[in-house]
């Protein structure tokens, strides 16, 4: 790798051209990947890609004027001091917040590069263009704001917010809610059956721990293998599986942990209170994210939970 200080003016301009071409293509890729779900933000990145392409043409014209039509091959990977970029544009799922952070880092780095290059330039035309580009890159935040005002209208922002919420529900809330319901409800029977059969808090806790961890692993694997998300838009399988598995385990552990209390009836009373809290939380999540009327969600969840709880107590008491 070459040091930045050892680059000739021709190499510096060639590097600037390569950087602008790379940045333009990255912004165009962002626009292409975001267009389906976030069309207004995609239009912003289309504008930024066009800006970078305009810089590239200006640099090419100056290079041809000063050094001819043969352009040396030199890229940011060949020069020390550049940040190693995390290729977020290659990710299967492109998160809009991550994209905007990446764009901000790119503009900051470009501004610093042009400022340093302008300081070293001896040719007045080269120094002038590089200095102008340094100012432009440093003002790109304002350019982005102008493009956002043009494309990100209030209705567009509302639409994108709705899309982001829909993706959150599909990729995280739905699998986590399924896991929480399974963990909270399905483990009621084995835990309370063990509790009333043995009246031993230690043994009941071990049963609850095994049931919760086993259910978490089972539900996580089931969710992860259900589909790859390519057609349904439900996101990466391992993220859904992790959300579902953790929520399942947490749902079961909620009413297993009280049996760490040595006194059986105290532990059982605390576990009962935890069950009520869990069922209320599930009803609230269904109302908040799944647009289920809270009353209907409460009746469905509480009724189902009580039936499973009573079944466990009945079996354990027998």
UniProtKB/TrEMBL annotation:
SUPFAM superfamilies for the chain: Ferritin-like
Transmembrane feature ranges: 167-193, 205-226, 238-258, 264-285, 297-316
Residues covered by the Rubrerythrin diiron-binding domain: 11-147
Tagged with keyword Transcription regulation: no
Assigned keywords, A-Z: Membrane, Transmembrane, Transmembrane helix
PANTHER family: BLR7895 PROTEIN, RUBRERYTHRIN SUBFAMILY
Name of the protein in its database record: Rubrerythrin
Source lineage: Bacteria, Pseudomonadati, Pseudomonadota, Alphaproteobacteria, Acetobacterales
């Amino acid at each position: 790798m070459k040091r930045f200080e050892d680059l000739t003016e021709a190499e510096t301009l060639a590097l600037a051209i390569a950087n602008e071409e790379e940045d333009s293509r990255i912004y165009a890729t962002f626009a292409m990947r975001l267009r389906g779900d976030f069309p207004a933000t995609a239009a912003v990145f289309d504008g930024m890609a066009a800006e970078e392409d305009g810089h590239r043409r200006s640099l090419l014209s100056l290079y041809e004027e000063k050094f001819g039509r043969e352009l040396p091959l030199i890229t940011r990977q060949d020069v020390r001091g550049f940040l190693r970029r995390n290729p977020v544009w290659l990710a299967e799922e492109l998160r809009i917040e991550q994209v905007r952070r990446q764009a901000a880092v790119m503009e900051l780095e470009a501004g610093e590069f042009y400022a340093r290059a302008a300081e070293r330039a001896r040719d007045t035309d080269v120094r002038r263009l590089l200095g102008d580009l340094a100012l432009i890159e440093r003002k790109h935040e304002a350019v982005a704001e102008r493009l956002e005002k043009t494309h990100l209208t209030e209705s567009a922002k509302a639409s994108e917010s709705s899309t982001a919420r829909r993706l959150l529900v599909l990729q995280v809330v739905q699998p986590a809610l399924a896991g929480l319901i399974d963990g909270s409800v399905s483990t009621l029977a084995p835990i309370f059956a063990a509790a009333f059969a043995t009246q031993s808090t230690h043994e009941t806790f071990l049963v609850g721990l095994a049931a919760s961890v086993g259910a978490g692993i089972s539900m996580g694997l089931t969710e992860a293998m259900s589909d790859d998300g390519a057609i349904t838009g439900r996101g990466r399988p391992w993220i859904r599986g992790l959300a579902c598995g953790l929520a399942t385990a947490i749902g079961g552990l909620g009413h297993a942990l009280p049996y760490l209390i040595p006194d059986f009836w105290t532990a059982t009373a605390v576990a009962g209170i935890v069950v009520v809290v869990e069922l209320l939380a599930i009803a609230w999540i269904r109302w908040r994210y799944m647009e289920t009327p809270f009353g209907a969600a409460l009746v469905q969840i509480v009724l189902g939970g009580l039936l499973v709880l009573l079944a466990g107590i009945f079996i354990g008491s027998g």
